[in-house]
Design goal:
Blueprint: E1 5-11, E2 19-24, E3 28-33, H1 39-56, H2 61-64, E4 77-79, E5 84-87, H3 100-103, H4 106-117, E6 119-121, E7 128-129, H5 134-145, E8 154-162, H6 169-178, E9 184-188, E10 191-200, H7 206-219, E11 223-228, E12 235-239, E13 243-244, E14 249-250, E15 276-280, H8 282-285, H9 307-320, H10 333-341, H11 354-362, H12 368-375, E16 378-382, E17 398-400, H13 403-407, H14 425-430, E18 434-435, H15 436-441, H16 444-453, H17 462-480, H18 497-511, E19 517-521, H19 529-544, E20 548-552, H20 556-560, E21 564-569, E22 578-583, H21 585-589, H22 595-600, E23 620-626, E24 634-639, E25 643-648, H23 654-669, E26 682-684, E27 689-695, H24 708-712, H25 714-723, H26 726-731, E28 755-758, E29 766-769, H27 780-783, H28 799-804, H29 807-813, H30 818-829, H31 846-862, E30 872-878, H32 886-901, E31 905-909, H33 913-918, E32 921-926, E33 935-940, H34 942-946, H35 952-962, H36 976-981, E34 985-991, E35 999-1004, E36 1008-1013, H37 1019-1036, H38 1041-1044, E37 1055-1059, E38 1064-1067, H39 1080-1083, H40 1086-1097, E39 1099-1100, H41 1114-1124, ...
Parallel strand pairs: 3-20, 3-21, 5-19, 19-20, 25-31, 25-32, 27-30, 30-31, 36-48, 36-49, 38-47, 47-48, 53-61, 53-62, 55-60, 60-61
Antiparallel strand pairs: 1-2, 1-4, 6-7, 6-17, 8-10, 8-11, 9-10, 11-12, 13-14, 15-16, 17-18, 21-22, 23-24, 23-26, 28-29, 32-33, 34-35, 34-37, 39-46, 40-43, 40-44, 41-42, 41-43, 44-45, 49-50, 51-52, 51-54, 56-57, 58-59, 62-63
């Protein structure tokens, strides 16, 4: 496969006609074509969907449920696609809580910054409020009252005491005197001011002052007063709390939520953070003041249901003497007040007022119709509590920056002043910095400048620096895309599509990714031609960074800037979906087939109207003094019956002028107010208009029931014609019969949709043609009614045939039906004549939908009869060219001309120069955006605009009218700096994370790089903490904040910069393989798809009768109920919710509206009126109590009706229980279903759901074993997932569950069959068997369509399992029974299956658990992965992996503090030549085996000194007999899955532990074998496995290996500790007392950053020493406890040389190569190799010889080590081998499970398992010394690998000796 292309084959999404394309990578590609040609189908539904879907699949299943994975596109195959990010115009959040600040997440950073760095100023006095301590108070006193000219001030220090209510002042004074306080300074009411001390404020009095202040603060509850006794008599108040001592106001500490209007902590309590309160707009209640009360001035009273209020108002107003026939505007204020306010009394003859009417409605707002009614009259008023700032008053008192910072961006008079602030203007302007609302209201450009110059109090911690950097970068990107005029408080729903897209584009810029596919949807929308070059520059920057850009676009500037143009067509809809042209822009210009090319060549032009319309003789619409938002009090004239275009740069005020001011003002004047009109003085000329119609960018209906015919109103006219046919009249058919939305004529099977909707959960939903009507939507009887029209005799068409017609065909067919033609003609006018009348609206393109909206408006106009003297309409259109090609724009302008010719006016907001040039009149706003805009630059015809020198529009029009042939821009050139950054390599600059020492390195992309080095040298830090974290974080930043809170990226590493990083995928080691409920199928996610397959296509059978279930009639259910429950009271329950999560508030409102007072939630009746807040994360069952009825033959008809009602609500299912019976938890309930019932026994069943097949869900697991498949006594659902712990310490293997026979599922699930297999049968097959089965599988059309994506997902995962050599595994194989190598390869298959291109795969020692044969297969796969255009970075010590790498990075030179440097980087030859590289030395001078020169001689097998196991048969072991020689180094090896761990750990180790624990005179029951002999010389057995060590900061080497308790005892025995009474617990950093309280003994403080990764900083209180100062004063041999923790193992070995126990453990650490490790290093920072060796030492210390008892014989210990070389470099393996030999030489036995060839070659005895894995393994294929094993010719993969190993080692040594 070619590496530099995206290869698409057979793309058939929507109207694409099997496209085959090769799209070059790292290019800017523009997709263009006429509207509806398939551009978005290709760009978004195919290319983006595949790239996003594949990368999201690399995340965990938990994370993916929040990441909105795209549907799999309809294409044969797509290869070479990178991870994709979409930047479109959609804004999914439409709430006013969403603002520019929240969209860009600047708000999230700001609230954290304010919580950390802002300063509080008192609301009353404006003074800074801070916490005072004795030290800060003393400094203040020195500055204000200190010695002046050598004279010390005399002061008195006092504190206040309040006299309790039940005490007298005298009593309190007596209490004070008893404590030594005899002097009272003053008495104020019930307060006493007590003197603490009186002294002169001298420098030498510091300690006395501090002591007095400390005592006063303690006794004065944090408050102290210092009074001067000099002439000035000054007094100063201080507080140790967040309290203003001058005003006696207390404040609370801020948290980040204090500055969030989306949090109840910070949001204003009145408006709840909206900044506005909801009220009633009485200008909407009385919209037309020309009407009288009788004529309906009060609009809400004019509906049929409210007429009684109108009648009462007229009656009482007449009685009151208020004129009811006088226009509202002529009534007096008193009369108006009476109507609105009422008389304040209730009664038949009392008017309660319009306001009380709305108050009454508010109490019923739980009902949907009432809410809809209220919404029509809502007003949104500035909140009086927060003045629109959204936050609580106290949050607005905190400020950042200083006076100078604030003055540079905001003049003092414009600063926000809250009504609660009692400051005068001068005091407010003197306050330093800005409040958070000031920050929100500043334009982005000004705000960016503020944060660049802003000064914050020093020192700044790491978290604050991070926040500032993020805020500055985001503001900078907003400026770059031309959005500097926006404010952070601007609501996102008010943004145009172009602004939304550019905000999303800033996120893409901020990611700084490479090898990423960005897909953009018309980025030119909303942009003035002046700004398009800026966007082009940004697109090129993204491309030049190494990304691929696919842009759907019609703008000529962007097209000509592209590297490639893909022109789709040739026509729209069914006539499109083909490639018209694909190539460079210059080649496009010479294309003869492309319509686009003809427009670009100016061969075809969009010409303005041939006869320009004169504006001199016309009526005018005049807006005076428009001053809303940024409009500068402008006056605008709009000529009527003309085409007028409002244009200007982005943010200049166009939408504000037209939408907020003009449109809203006109609708109010016409009596149809929408929203309050924006600020303006007057609107004149409205009398010339009949009405105003707005066609904006709001989305068109997204239901499939909506189609072009219904949208323009043609379908109604057509249905009427059908109802007039003779056959229709004979049958009594009405127009409603021919509706597919309602009535009796539509197909009951599909309810008129024409298709069956199959929900596929996490896959694309499937839509199938309805089997009943064959997609025709109607009943056959209705389709028998045929229609013919005059001139088309003989051509009879049914209603379905008509819906299949195109608009053009329908125009011909209905040529003599004017009522149909009149509403169809607008579709032709806007160029949609090719659409089918019945085409579902969701299948329309963006351009088609935009034009359909316009056609709908035109159709509504044409249905009105218009006389010549009638006024015309004003059409207001917002960017109508969105999604339109040049040819479509031409048709659009024709539609405008037609409207104008019919006497209407057209007003558009537009930037498209074709449209601007065609206008009769242009209104140009500017000159810039935001505060620099809002001026009227020019107005007039286009020619006049071109003459205005400062008009950007004029300049663009002048260039446009010259009409030069467009040519592609010249080839780009890049600066040297830019080239270096975008070179084909990942650059890491000055990495300082963990032990890295300013490491800078280059990792070439698209090849295999191995990072190696001694254990602890920093390999994982580079690969995972820097490279992986940075690549994934940057991709995640393109996702929404909601998703990211569940997929939190790792914290940013200490590194200056990382350049050229693509999205990353990590394949790490995992020590845990899951419990019994985790299987091969669940690990690979195949089971997710299997469950869905069986739920959708499985055939349900009765588990008792084994008969396929069928539907049963309502009558059959009724008969059963009448017979079974005769004479009893029963309840009918309709299941509404079954096992779903949520609040279900709307459901409760619906039930209440139906008159139901309760719903049963999880077995408990809950009132619907006072619905509680349900737990949204818990699965709920909700039933509707339909009735309580007694079963009697007399009431059968009533019961039948109730049963029908229950089945209707329950969608065909009803539950029945006896009244008064135990309703809780469905006890005593019986289910009846009309769809699923056993024909044999009559039992009903629920509909199939994927959860029924899950043994991890209560819906599916076997109710006896809870999904484990095992008989576990006393085990229940509460322990589900903990079965492994439950089995610990239990004798023998648990038996198979008697209920499900080990199949884990309940009987109902096992009785569902697909192709005659149950899901358990299917899971029991091996991967190989399933692949064969799938190959032979043949499905019918419907089943094939449903299973298409499911089978593709299952097959791809199975193929990858086969590729990594795991075809022998069955899908139901439990995870705990997998070998380490099998688990590792399953993880690899799951990740590598994403089949992406351009990503960076980071693998952590993939050779772990792999036999050399399997490792060879893995390396072949990894190299193929790199050959596909991916970067593969492997952290590895394996020799073969290193030798096959394209690039090697060797870190070192030593471990820990001695490492963290790049020793050598480059090719293998370069590494071999490096003298500093330990890796190079060991590759050129490999270890010689045996290292000691000779091997131990093993005595005869089956003789004395052997441990013998007979007929071992656990798991896949095939009744093998095996001998382990004692006193030897034994290595058990073999391919992955061959049975090594089963033999050594599950048979040998478990039995040996049991035997040693039992009394030696009694035999323990053996597990997994028949006989176990020769074990008696062994006195103990120790295992070192792969379980993780402690992963909290509290765990460290000293605590893990067990020496810390001894060290603490030594400190407790010191004289100083005994004098202070300190025990050993005082020296623990895990227990309060001796540890530092600031960090709780961790040495670090965690700062939670909400949506950002948490930050850990050094504890300032103890300086990361972990202990408090008193504990650190105790020293042992001159060292305190913190200094001991800081020692390395080497240093500690010398220091504790006089303590044998400590010295022994420390020397063991040295022997395994951990001498460099600090005793207190936190466990999370240890490398994998370091952790593995720590575990080894921990076990070795347990077997230390007892030297204190000489009469005890030698102890023989058997050590079982599971792959001890994990994480070890070759140099560390050498040290490990020495340790293992020392153990054997001391009289012990060591058994290792290992694949490392150095260990295998060094062993005294080998046991080789095989010959393959799974069922093909479990046998001993070879055993004996290595030399003997390697001579075996057949059956042993180890023999072959070992022979090759010795051969190559010999050749390496010979080559080295020659050198």
């Amino acid at each position: 496969m070619t590496k530099d292309i995206i290869r698409i084959r057979g793309a058939r999404q929507n109207n694409l006609k099997g496209l085959n394309l090769d799209l070059p990578l790292k290019k800017l590609i523009v997709i263009t074509g006429v509207s509806g040609s398939g551009k978005s189908s290709l760009a978004f539904d195919t290319i983006y969907a595949e790239g996003q879907r594949r990368y999201i699949e690399t995340f965990s299943p938990y994370a993916r449920q929040f990441l909105d994975r795209m549907d799999k596109p309809h294409a044969d195959r797509i290869e070479g696609i990178p991870p994709a990010i979409a930047i479109d115009q959609t804004n999914p959040v439409r709430t006013s809580r969403s603002t520019v600040g929240t969209m860009t997440e600047i708000n999230d950073h700001l609230k954290l910054l304010f919580a950390k760095a802002s300063v509080l100023y008192c609301s009353e006095c404006g003074d800074e409020v801070r916490r005072d301590s004795p030290e800060t108070i003393f400094l203040t006193l020195e500055e204000s009252l200190g010695e002046k000219i050598g004279i010390a001030s005399q002061i008195v220090i006092t504190f206040e005491v309040s006299v309790p209510k039940n005490f007298q002042s005298k009593e309190v004074e007596e209490f004070l005197a008893a404590q030594g306080y005899t002097r009272i300074h003053s008495r104020h009411g019930r307060k006493l001011e007590v003197i603490q001390d009186r002294l002169r404020l001298k420098k030498n009095a510091r300690s006395r002052v501090l002591e007095a202040l400390e005592a006063s603060l303690e006794r004065g509850y944090g408050k102290v007063i210092v009074r001067s006794l000099e002439e000035d008599g000054a007094s100063l108040k201080f507080s140790s709390a967040l309290h203003c001592p001058q005003c006696d106001i207390s404040y609370t500490d801020p948290v980040s939520s204090s500055f969030s209007f989306n949090s109840p902590v910070g949001a204003c309590e009145m408006c709840r953070g909206f900044g506005r309160t909801i009220g009633i707009d009485y200008s909407l209640v009385i919209p037309d003041e020309r009407k009288s009360i009788r004529d309906g001035a009060v609009k809400p009273f004019q509906t049929k249901s409210r007429r009684r209020f109108q009648a009462k108002l007229v009656r009482l107003a007449t009685a009151k003497g208020i004129p009811v026939d006088t226009p509202w505007s002529n009534l007096t204020e008193e009369q108006k007040t009476w109507v609105l306010e009422g008389e304040g009394l209730r009664g038949k003859d009392k008017w309660q007022g319009v306001k009380r009417f709305f108050a009454w409605l508010e109490r019923k707002s739980y009902r949907m119709p009432v809410r809809v009614l209220l919404s029509k009259y809502r007003s949104y008023d500035i909140c009086s509590a927060c003045d629109g700032a959204r936050l609580k008053p106290e949050s607005l008192l905190w400020r950042i920056g200083n006076v100078t910072d604030a003055e540079q961006v905001l003049i003092p008079s414009k600063r926000f002043k809250h009504s609660a602030q009692k400051l005068n203007t001068k005091k407010l302007t003197d306050l330093p910095g800005l409040a958070i609302h000031d920050v929100m209201m500043l334009p982005v450009a000004e705000l960016s400048h503020f944060f660049e110059i802003m000064h914050l109090p020093r020192p700044l911690d790491e978290a604050t620096e991070l926040l500032l950097k993020e805020i500055r970068s985001r503001l900078h990107y907003l400026k770059e895309v031309g959005l500097g005029y926006l404010t952070l408080d601007r609501q996102s729903r008010t943004l145009s599509g172009g602004e939304v897209q550019r905000i999303n584009l800033t996120t893409a810029l901020g990611t700084s990714l490479v090898n990423t596919l960005f897909v953009l949807d018309e980025p030119s929308i909303g942009l003035h031609s002046r700004d398009i070059e800026r966007v082009v520059g940004i697109l090129k920057r993204l491309r030049d960074a190494g990304n691929t850009l696919i842009v759907v676009e019609h703008d000529a500037q962007i097209m000509m800037a592209a590297d490639r143009i893909l022109d789709l067509g040739p026509g729209p809809g069914a006539a499109g979906g083909e490639v018209v042209f694909f190539g460079s822009p210059n080649h496009l210009l010479s294309s003869s087939d492309s319509v686009t090319a003809r427009y670009l060549r100016t061969e075809k032009c969009i010409e303005p109207s041939p006869s320009p319309r004169n504006v001199k003789r016309c009526d005018w619409l005049k807006v005076s003094g428009a001053a809303e938002h940024n409009l500068k009090n402008i006056d605008v004239k709009i000529p009527l019956n003309k085409f007028v275009c409002v244009t200007g740069v982005s943010g200049s005020g166009k939408s504000t002028l037209i939408h907020n001011v003009l449109f809203n003002a006109l609708t109010k004047l016409k009596g149809k107010p929408k929203d309050p009109a924006g600020l303006h003085k007057a609107l004149q000329g409205d009398e010339y208009l009949a009405d105003v119609i707005l066609v904006d960018q709001s989305p068109i209906g997204r239901t499939t029931r909506s189609n072009p015919a219904s949208f323009v109103g043609a379908l109604r006219a057509i249905r009427i014609l059908f109802s007039k046919e003779l056959l229709a009249k004979e049958r009594g058919y009405t127009a409603g019969t021919f509706s597919f939305n309602s009535g009796s004529g539509r197909c009951p099977g599909c309810s008129g949709t024409g298709f069956e909707h199959v929900e596929m959960q996490f896959l694309s939903d499937v839509y199938l043609r309805c089997g009943d009507c064959n997609g025709r939507r109607f009943r056959p009887e209705v389709l028998e009614v045929k229609l013919t029209t005059s001139g088309h005799e003989g051509k009879f068409k049914s209603i379905s045939d008509v819906l299949d017609m195109t608009v053009r065909e329908a125009m011909t067919f209905f040529c003599h039906a004017p009522e149909v033609l009149r509403v169809l003609r607008p579709l032709v006018v806007v160029g949609l004549e090719y659409l089918s009348l019945g085409q579902p609206v969701p299948t329309l393109s963006g351009g088609e939908a935009q034009r359909l909206k316009l056609a709908g408006s035109l159709a509504r106009v044409t249905t009105r009869r218009k006389n010549l003297e009638d006024n015309g309409l004003l059409f207001v259109l917002d960017e109508p060219t969105t999604g339109l090609h040049f040819s479509d724009v031409s048709r659009l302008l024709g539609a405008f001309d037609e409207l104008i010719n019919h006497g209407h006016s057209v007003l558009v907001i537009e930037h498209n120069l074709d449209v601007v040039n065609a206008a009769d009149w242009i209104i140009d706003l500017g000159p810039e955006g935001g505060e620099s805009g809002g001026y009227l630059i020019a107005s007039g015809p286009p020619k006049k605009i071109m003459e205005v020198s400062n008009s950007w529009t004029g300049q663009a029009l002048a260039n446009y009218r010259r009409k030069p042939e467009r040519r592609s821009t010249k080839k780009r050139t890049r600066s040297v700096a830019q080239k270096s950054r975008t070179a084909k390599a990942i650059q890491i600059v000055r990495g300082r994370e963990h032990n890295l020492k300013n490491v800078s390195l280059s990792i070439p992309r698209d090849c295999l790089t191995v990072i190696t080095g001694v254990s602890g040298s920093g390999k994982s830090t580079v690969a995972f903490d820097i490279l992986f974290a940075e690549g994934q974080r940057r991709y995640l930043e393109s996702l929404n904040a909601y998703a990211r809170q569940f997929v939190q990226p790792a914290s940013r590493a200490e590194v200056d910069a990382v350049f050229g990083v693509p999205p990353t995928i990590a394949i790490e080691q995992r020590s845990s393989r899951g419990g019994r409920k985790s299987t091969v199928a669940t690990l690979t996610e195949i089971y997710h798809f299997l469950r869905l397959l069986f739920a959708k296509l499985g055939t349900q059978h009765c588990p008792h009768c084994d008969v396929a279930i069928n539907a049963q009639s309502k009558e059959a259910i009724l008969a059963k109920v009448m017979t079974k429950y005769r004479g009893e009271h029963i309840k009918f329950w309709s299941p509404l919710v079954v096992g779903r999560k949520g609040y279900y508030t709307e459901l409760a409102s619906w039930a209440a509206s139906k008159g139901y007072e309760h719903l049963k939630v999880d077995g408990v009746l809950v009132p619907t009126e006072e619905w509680p807040r349900l737990d949204r994360f818990k699965e709920h069952d909700i039933d509707l109590p339909v009735c309580d009825v007694k079963i009697s033959p007399k009431s059968e008809s009533a019961i039948s009706e109730l049963l029908s009602q229950s089945l209707g609500y329950g969608k065909g299912i009803v539950k029945i229980s006896k009244s008064g019976g135990p309703d809780k938890k469905n006890n005593g309930e019986e289910i009846f279903s009309v769809q699923r019932s056993c024909p044999s026994c009559g039992r009903s069943f629920r509909a199939l759901d994927p959860r029924i097949f899950s043994y991890n869900s209560r819906h599916g697991w076997c109710q006896r074993c809870f999904g484990t498949g095992l008989e576990l006594p006393d085990f229940d659902h509460e322990q589900s997932g903990e079965e492994a712990c439950w089995l610990e310490g239990r004798e023998g293997e648990p038996g198979e569950c008697g209920a499900c026979h080990g199949q884990r599922l309940r009987a109902e699930a096992l009785a569902v069959y697909f192709q005659n297999l149950s899901i358990a049968d299917f899971s029991s097959l091996s991967v190989k068997e399933i692949l064969i089965w799938l190959k032979d599988l043949k499905l019918k059309d419907r089943d094939q369509q449903i299973a298409r994506d499911l089978l593709a997902e299952i097959s791809s995962r199975l193929n990858f399992l086969d590729m990594v050599g795991l075809s022998y595994l069955s899908l139901d194989r439990a995870a705990p029974t997998l070998s380490g190598g099998e688990a590792q390869r399953i993880r690899l298959a799951a990740q590598l299956g994403s089949n992406l291109r351009g990503v960076c795969y980071i693998l952590d020692e993939p050779s772990i658990g792999l036999h050399p044969r399997d490792n060879h297969l893995l390396l072949d796969m990894v190299q193929k992965l790199a050959a596909k255009g991916n970067t593969v970075v492997v952290v590895e010590h394996d020799e073969e992996t290193i030798r096959r790498a394209d690039h090697i990075i060797d870190l070192g030179p030593g471990p820990g503090a001695h490492g963290g440097e790049v020793v050598v980087a480059g090719s293998l030859s370069k590494v071999l030549k490096s003298r500093r590289s330990v890796t190079g030395r060991l590759l050129t001078e490999p270890l010689a085996h045996p290292m000691n020169g000779k091997r131990r001689i093993i005595s005869q097998v089956n003789g004395p000194g052997h441990l013998s196991i007979s007929r071992a048969s656990r798991h896949n072991l095939c009744d093998i007999n095996v001998d382990f020689p004692l006193g030897a180094l034994i290595c058990v090896t073999g391919v992955s899955g061959s049975g090594k761990s089963t033999l050594v750990r599950n048979v040998l180790y478990e039995n040996l532990v049991r035997l040693l624990m039992k009394n030696r005179n009694r035999r323990s029951k053996l597990v997994g074998c028949d006989n176990f002999e020769g074990w008696e010389p062994i006195t103990r057995v120790l295992e070192v496995d792969q379980t993780p060590i402690g992963k909290t900061p509290r765990s460290c080497p000293a605590t893990y290996v067990g020496i810390w308790n001894d060290v603490r005892r030594l400190f407790a025995q010191t004289l100083e500790a005994r004098m202070r009474g300190y025990s050993a617990g005082r020296f623990s950093f895990n227990i309060a007392g001796g540890r530092c309280d600031g960090c709780e003994g961790q040495g670090l403080r965690k700062i939670e950053m909400n949506f950002l990764p948490d930050v850990r900083v050094r504890c300032e209180r103890c300086n990361s020493a972990r202990f408090n100062s008193e504990t650190l004063e105790v020293k042992y041999k001159g060292k305190n406890i913190a200094e001991i923790l800081a020692m390395s193992v080497d240093e500690a070995t010398v220091f504790f040389s006089t303590h044998p126990k400590l010295e022994h453990t420390l020397k063991l650490l040295q022997h395994v190569g951990l001498g460099y490790l600090p005793l207190g290093q936190q466990s999370p920072t240890l490398s994998g190799g370091e952790a593995q060796r720590l575990k080894l030492v921990t076990e070795l210390t347990k077997a230390r010889p007892r030297i204190d008892k000489t009469n005890v014989g030698p102890r023989h210990t058997l050590y079982v080590l599971d792959e001890p070389t994990i994480g070890l470099h070759m140099a560390d393996v050498e040290k490990l081998i020495h340790v293992l030999h020392q153990l054997v030489d001391a009289g012990n036995t060591v058994i290792t499970i290992e694949h490392n060839l150095d260990i295998i070659a060094e062993a005294d005895w080998l046991i080789d398992m095989g010959p393959d894995g799974g069922d093909a393994g479990g046998r001993i294929v070879a055993q004996g010394p290595p030399k003997k094993v390697m001579r075996r010719k057949r059956g042993s993969h180890t023999a072959k690998a070992l022979a090759e190993f010795f051969r190559t080692r010999s050749s390496y040594r010979r080559e080295n000796s020659l050198v």
